[in-house]
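F.,

This is the one I mentioned.
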């Protein structure tokens, strides 16, 4: 089914890998395929890797797993892709029925002390240029997952919740799903990473409009469920997640300006759109549709990065991504409650306002974030009203945020 990426002598010669006239290449280097991480890395980095993780690499190799990219050949050969989760038909469904798809992967492994959680990568590549990257990893509680890039892309308003209480979402270019706590347990807030273990898929840059291809979205949603089911089976878990497509809401649509003026910014009553974002047609808002772990309103998205984001994370398993930031990322701390009582933690700065509330259901995150710090007054005006309105909506109110004095 999937074509392998075995290296051929001609392929190596094409890249000049076997030319030893000017550079002496050790024998073990010559035997490695050109895409091996050890050959792609620089010598200093390779030396650091060898010194730092030699024991882990040797142990993995002895176990037959290895850490290099591997194709469906040799001792790993079978007719399945992405750690055995996908058969030929599954891969074809992701590429409009095409079956000449190459696959390469790094097996899912966990560091020796388990502090970083499992991680692995699979890539499916079409000869026509399309590529799908699959990752298994534990989300980083340091800041929104991998420096907030993960949150920008995978908590985007273009994604719709998978429904039925699943911690996951999908669009026509992104999909993600957390492994259920019942299988691997919920991470402790004391963990180094602290976030849930997820498997996600991405197909490259997103053309940010509200014309989501429902067929492509459904294919990614089914694929990510299949991946998580396979992972759970490998972990010895007996439960299975059902096909989510039938219960997913319709994709979101841009909010009409007249409706937004009537109902409030991003559909939040009492919230007024700052004048800096009142540009006809330039910053049309897109709002998450359907009940799910997160409600996001994005405006002015460029290369998957929103110019202005208002986001409420209702699921405590996901809200943990901003827990550490709410405590130590502050320029000016935000307070709630009276007489020294505190309902949560947060801060305000020129480009962002964040409040992490302790609600009856657990942590809930309220975020207002701009892509620059050019309009600090807008952030100050939006955060208290947004927190108050959203807290009431999710049953966490009343919640009144007090901002520090300016200057």
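My design for it:
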């Amino acid at each position: 089914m999937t074509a392998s990426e075995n290296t051929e002598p001609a392929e190596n010669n094409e890249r000049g890998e076997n030319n030893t006239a000017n550079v002496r290449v050790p024998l073990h280097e010559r035997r490695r395929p050109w895409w091996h991480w050890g050959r792609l890395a620089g010598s200093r980095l390779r030396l650091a890797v060898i010194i730092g993780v030699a024991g882990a690499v040797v142990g993995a190799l002895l176990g037959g797993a290895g850490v290099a990219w591997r194709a469906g050949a040799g001792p790993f050969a079978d007719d399945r892709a992405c750690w055995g989760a996908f058969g030929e038909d599954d891969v074809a469904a992701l590429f409009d029925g095409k079956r000449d798809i190459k696959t390469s992967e790094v097996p899912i492994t966990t560091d020796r002390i388990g502090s970083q959680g499992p991680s692995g990568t699979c890539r499916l590549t079409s000869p026509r240029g399309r590529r799908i990257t699959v990752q298994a990893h534990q989300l980083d509680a340091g800041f929104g997952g991998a420096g907030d890039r993960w949150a920008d892309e995978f908590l985007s308003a273009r994604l719709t919740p998978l429904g039925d209480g699943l911690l996951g979402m999908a669009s026509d270019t992104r999909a993600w799903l957390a492994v259920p706590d019942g299988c691997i347990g919920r991470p402790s807030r004391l963990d180094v990473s602290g976030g849930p273990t997820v498997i996600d898929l991405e197909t490259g840059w997103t053309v940010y409009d509200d014309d989501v291809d429902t067929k492509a979205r459904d294919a990614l949603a089914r694929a990510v469920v299949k991946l998580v089911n396979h992972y759970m089976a490998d972990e010895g878990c007996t439960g299975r997640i059902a096909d989510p497509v039938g219960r997913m809401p319709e994709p979101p649509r841009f909010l009409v300006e007249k409706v937004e003026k009537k109902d409030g910014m991003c559909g939040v009553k009492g919230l007024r759109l700052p004048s800096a974002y009142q540009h006809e047609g330039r910053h049309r808002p897109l709002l998450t549709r359907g009940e799910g772990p997160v409600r996001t309103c994005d405006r002015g998205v460029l290369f998957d990065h929103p110019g202005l984001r208002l986001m409420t994370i209702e699921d405590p398993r996901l809200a943990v991504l901003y827990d550490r930031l709410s405590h130590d990322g502050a320029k000016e701390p935000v307070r709630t409650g009276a007489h020294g009582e505190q309902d949560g933690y947060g801060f305000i700065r020129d480009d962002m306002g964040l409040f992490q509330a302790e609600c009856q259901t657990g942590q809930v995150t309220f975020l207002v974030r701009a892509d620059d710090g050019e309009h600090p007054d807008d952030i100050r005006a939006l955060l208290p009203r947004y927190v108050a309105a959203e807290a009431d909506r999710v049953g966490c109110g009343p919640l009144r945020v007090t901002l520090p004095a300016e200057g």
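Residues 78-402 form one domain.

Talk soon.
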